[in-house]
Amino acid sequence: MQGDEDIRPGTMAAAGTPAGHRPARYLLFCLFVLCAVFGALFFVLPLPLYRLAGHCLEAGIALTCMCLCLYAYRYWSGRILLLLAAFAFGEYALATIFWYLFSILPLTGDGDLARPFVYTSVAELSFLGFMIFFIAAFQIEGKKEQENPWFPWLLLLLFLIVPFMVIDEYGITTRTVMLLVRFLIVEQLIAVTIAYGFFRYPLLWAGICIRCFAAMLYGLRETILVYYPSLSLLPGVTGSTGMVSLYDLLSIVGPLIAASFTLITLGLLDYVAVREQDRAGSPDPAA
After folding, report:
1. Which residues are paired to 12 by β-bridges?
2. In a domain, 233, yes or no
């Protein structure tokens, strides 16, 4: 993007494309491929190294997406959508760094804090805050479309089934309540994305869906599988350190989240590029 000439706020490159759009897309596609390749390394790398590298990948890609959104906000368009997205990626990166350090450093003086004690840390508020930023951004940027009045209620009911089943099985605990909150926020993000028409942008919609799926998967892992860490995935399935448990296998949630960030950012940049191109060709400058 530094190679683009005469880059100023609102500068448009050839054929109405915002300056730097193409190299940003190439970078994000390469990062998406990197996430896919890294996900497959679960069966090769030792689990502690895989988790460390996975969290570094998440934080690094989140910071990259933040920078791209800030660049687009500064040089393409002053849309608040881009600014809120940058905040979402930035706070997620900081939360990831805090969460991982909290899970491995002897901050209490009693040695390793152990993984089961980090699920309900304050970092969860930041992980959920990522989705809340996008809920707000989509509502500010878009216009609500006509929809069946029953659809939001049916969607809510669908997302409440699993957490209520878990609560019925394990009772009301910090973990089960957090799972319920997680599913409710995921439901709201899906509902808002649909209601405000952003599902029509395939890459953005795919990224949102993967992010939501990973969030639910992680919540179920830390709520249910934490009590059964040795649960076998499939007979004979092994990793670099022996038999693979379902709990350990779901460490691929990290690369999934990182991949979703690349798709969300790709979708956002494409959305802004299209909107700016439409505005440039519209007689109404406020379009």
Report:
1. 18
2. yes
Contact 50, 252 (CB under 8 A): no
Instruction: Identify the burial level of 285 via C-beta atoms within 10 angstroms of its C-beta, where 0-12 means exposed, 13-18 middle and 19 or more buried.
Output: exposed
Domains contained in the chain, number: 1
- The parent domain of residue 208 ranges over 18-279
- pLDDT tens figures, 195-220: 999 999 999 999 999 999 999 999 88
Residue 284 domain-assigned (yes or no): no
How remote is the C-alpha of 191 from its chain's centroid?
A: 16
User: Is residue 7 domain-resident?
Assistant: no
CA of 50: how far to CAs of 30, 43, 116, in Å? 20, 9, 18
Q: Residue 233 has what pLDDT?
A: 57
Using alpha carbons, list the distances in angstroms from residue 196 to 11, 104, 134. 27, 41, 12
Q: pTM (2 decimals)?
A: 0.84
Q: What is the pLDDT of residue 237?
A: 55
Res 283: pLDDT:
52
Q: What string of H, E and C letters represents the secondary structure of the chain?
A: CCCCCCCCCCCECHHHCECCHHHHHHHHHHHHHHHHHHHHHHHCCCHHHHHHHHHHHHHHHHHHHHHHHHHHHHHCCCCHHHHHHHHHHHHHHHHHHHHHHHHHCCCCCCCCCCHHHCCCCCHHHHHHHHHHHHHHHHHHHCCCCCCCCCHHHHHHHHHHHHHHHHHHHHCCCHHHHHHHHHHHHHHHHHHHHHHCCHHHCHHHHHHHHHHHHHHHHHHHHHHCHHHCCCCECCCCCEECCEECEHHHHHHHHHHHHHHHHHHHHHHHHHHHHHHHHHHHCCCCCCC
Q: Residues 81, 86, 92, 96: what is their CA dihedral angle, to the nearest 10 degrees?
A: 160
- Whole-angstrom distance, CA of residue 98 vs CA of residue 126: 10
